[in-house]
Write a structure and sequence with these properties.
- The strands form two sheets. The protein has a five-stranded mixed β-sheet with strand order 4-1-7-5-6. Strands 2-3 form a two-stranded antiparallel sheet.
- The protein is built from five helices and seven strands, in the order ββββαααβαβαβ.
- It is globular, with a radius of gyration of 15 Å.
- It has a single domain (3-158), classed as 2-C-methyl-D-erythritol 2,4-cyclodiphosphate synthase (60s Ribosomal Protein L30, Chain: A), CATH 3.30.1330.
- With 160 residues, the chain is an alpha+beta fold.
- Strand 5, helix 4 and strand 6 form a beta-alpha-beta unit.
- The structure holds magnesium ion (MG).
- The site of magnesium ion has 5 residues, from strand 1 and helix 1.
Amino acid sequence: MSLRIGNGYDIHRLVTGRPLILGGVSIEHELGLLGHSDADVLTHAIMDALLGALSLGDIGLYFPPSDPQWAGANSLMLLTQVNQMVRDRGWHIVNIDSVVVAERPKLKPHIAAMTDKLAEVLGIAPDQVGVKATTNEKLGPTGREEGIAAYAVALLAQSA
Ligand code: MG
């Protein structure tokens, strides 16, 4: 069986007056993520992991911030397109694992909702989507709450 692994990373700045959306889930917080799309940093990291596994470049190639059609885009819709690219090339997701680095808010209450949402959009089971959260122990930009970062890996297998 052929396997491919990919990894993805993203970070977005925290600002006032923006919603906080992680893994497609809206989270109550006084700050939100700044970006051309909805700035869903977790979904972006997962998309880059999927693209990377097949050496298809990164999300900036397909959804450039310079293109007005992606302004305010729902990142789950972009993830749907990336998932379709994977399937069109004859691959399927074995599993994804990810970690969100955020000092605040506490993400633990939202992990299950993020997992379910991502699994639903990807057409896989929730136990194939790992979503974890950690603080950065107040160190660096994420620790100072200047932004939220996310890391993801994806394992793909060639479909029969
Ligand atoms: Mg991004």
